[in-house]
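If you are new to this repository, start here. Below is one unmodified record pulled from the training split, so you can see the exact layout before writing a loader.
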Amino acid sequence: MIETKIVSQIGQSCPDRASCRIRIRAITWFDWDKMYVFKYNATEADRERALGTRDRGFRELERQLVFTKGSTIVFQESEPKDIEGLVKNEVVFDIPDTASYKSYPPDAVFSVKEMRGKAGTYYELNQVH
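And here is the target side for that same chain:
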């Protein structure tokens, strides 16, 4: 749902994708203070270490978005991943190749870059603030 909302927000708010900027906070309907984005290769141990808690939300070989408020998970979703390439309308965050996840504050602003791949359009989000 969140990834679909991000793509929808890009389509509605960014007619000129060359200078597009979005805030994830603008599309969430719940209160949160940190967003964690896990790559498909993140392990359960990576997730537990990042979140500081064990929970039943881990899904192997899926990209995951987890929102927390304090030490409580308030929303999470898993997104499919094609390990051979990108999925159509996939949102790719600016996570370094050497990391399996990255966290962002609610006031984070992202620049959007629309890209084309074998599966179709996907979007790169890079934190600018």
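Two things worth knowing about this chain: The helical segments are 2-13, 44-51. The mean pLDDT is 88.
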